[in-house]
Amino acid sequence: MKILFVASEVAPFAKTGGLADVAASLPRALAALGHDVRLVMPLYDRVLDNGHQPRPAGQITFELGGRQITAGVGRLDLESVPVALVDVPDLYHRGDLYGDESDEGLRFAVLSVAALELCRLGDWSPDIIHCNDWQTGLIPLYLGTRYAGERRFAATSTVLTIHNLAYQGKFPSRTLGDLGLLGHRHLFHQEHLTQGWLGFLETGLIHADMLTTVSPTYATEILTPAYGAGLDGLLRRRADHLVGILNGIDETVWNPAVDQHIPHQYSQKTLWRKEWNKRQLLESLGMPYEEHAPLFGVVSRLVSQKGIGLLPWPISGVLESTNSRFVALGSGEPDIEGRLRWLTDRFPGRAHFVSGYDEPLAHQIEAGADVFLMPSQYEPSGLNQMYSLAYGTPPLVRKTGGLADTVHHWQPAAGTGTGFVFENFDEGGVWWALNQALEAMRDSTGWKRLQWNGMAVDNSWGARAREYEALYMEIGGER
Ligand code: ADP
Ligand code: GLC
């Protein structure tokens, strides 16, 4: 099949979170199954700052909402997958990938139309256009309006994957003109247009042939008001076109046996080397190492979704009553950062917060920590808990979304389970799970079993890419 994959971030070129990891690894897994897969993303200044130098690969010019857009096309490769980067410096050279300026909608409408124009440039007819999140939500609508009747797209079906329902790309109704969609108002959510706004994501949810999200549990959660972020009604109406397919992990990047970011590679057989990583991690952060002192780790975007604000109180209780250590890496909301700094100040040498984005340190925490903390309020899939399993670092998670699908509570008597799972989204829930973890650590044989259980789980893309393949076949056949 010919598959066009469009995303607003792709690792290692530009990344803010898990979307970039998935947008890099799923297309490669599909290509490995023999499909012709091509990727499209914006050429942010960040891509250049990260040291990547796209080769010039032509130019596209098109009209959008009365504007003449001229975009250079850059080309990079992810193994056998060609990546086209849409170069409009005015729109994409902003330091950050996302922003809140008034043309934020236009930036990604341009990406969406450019992806379709690139098919013309390459004289290519995709069977599937796989869209991701709100930034690409308008593609199905453009395909059905602007490009209706174009033979190249006559057999093209669309899939829209929801990586996070909370980010919806909402803009004022007057944006319609800039999007070149004034003549198609009737195809938008009518009630919302009347209220003065439109949503890129909801428009995609209405018009894409098939909807997916990144875990089976999140696929059912988002049909309820508690998790639906206002879109549960729309999703319930399309429930027969919505499936949850769990994300996979890229084992060439997140694998302790080959990880170049960590000082001591290890596997199940050489698990004792993990302790050396812990020692080096602590010392690199200026924290004294002590044998048998448990280390709890965090790597996260610091937004309310992730529940990091629940940690300081129970963690301070644990640090007071045991010789444990705590390390967190993340950036985001100032009040969450402030609460993590409070811990650092209160327990110098035993709690440490690194503010910022640091790829090598993220790997070193996965490898060096004893327990990885992910107390999310909601979690569409989550990748970090899967990385933790692979690194023999049992994750402590809340039972929600992809966390519920990938981590099972440790049962010492039976020797089953892969981590620590609590249900109530409050500090008491975290406190309970932390104590379960400390209890489990007292039995070193049981602990090793728990680590091995996690390391034995297959979270690779193999079978999961096949689920996407089956879905593409099914919708291709429907048209
Ligand atoms: P989300 O996409 O919601 O942030 P995921 O668990 O799916 O959550 O993916 C997060 C990805 O971003 C992981 O690869 C993680 O290592 C990375 N990440 C998050 N914050 C940082 C940070 N401060 N520094 C380095 N990597 C980070
Ligand atoms: C989003 C979600 C995260 C998911 C990632 C990739 O950022 O918050 O749970 O793993 O997308 O699908």
**End-to-end Cα distance:** 15 Å
Total E-strand runs: 17
Shape: globular
User: Per DSSP, what share of the residues sits in E-state strands of 2 or more residues?
Assistant: 15-25%
**Cofactors and ligands present?**
adenosine-5'-diphosphate, alpha-D-glucopyranose
What does the largest sheet look like?
9 strands, mixed
Structural class: alpha/beta
Strand order of the largest sheet: 3-4-5-2-1-6-7-10-11
Count of helices? 19
Poorly predicted runs of 5 or more residues? none
Portion of residues within helices: 25-40%
CA-based gyration radius = 23 Å
State mean pLDDT (0 to 100 scale): 97
Give a summary of the structure in a few sentences.
With 479 residues, the protein is of the alpha/beta class.
Characteristic terms for this protein:
479 residues; alpha/beta; nine-stranded mixed sheet; 19 helices; globular; binds adenosine-5'-diphosphate; binds alpha-D-glucopyranose
